[in-house]
Amino acid sequence: SIVDLHCFAEVQNLQKMTPYVSQAFEADLHQRAELEVGHFLELVAQTESHATPLVCYGEAETLAALRMDVVDQLLVPSDSGGLFSSSNYMWVQLAEASGASLVEVDPRSRNLRNQIRLYLRNQLQRT
Known about the structure:
Layout lengths: L10 H37 L11 H9 L5 E5 L8 H13 L2 E5 L4 H17 L1
Parallel strand pairs: 1-2
């Protein structure tokens, strides 16, 4: 994104803009996570019509898929320690080793909860 600072790009002015840049970065991360969760839910819905699963979830299945190098993208929950916290460190290492991209998802996000709730409601209506 391009932001018009309405001032000269001097150190003092750039320092004043730091909080705004951080907010924009956080908003971009949340938007990306929401898009990726939406894509994951679409793949879950398509899995029924494919001979092989397009998604996996659960630690054991995900670990096996990562070790077989068949994971394109790994969604991990965010926590207070961040992506490289001890709880996510193993997943980060496995994703890097297999070449999978990594997306951190905030499970407390209202938009994500609504997205999942809508998906589940649609699945129940199909049955």
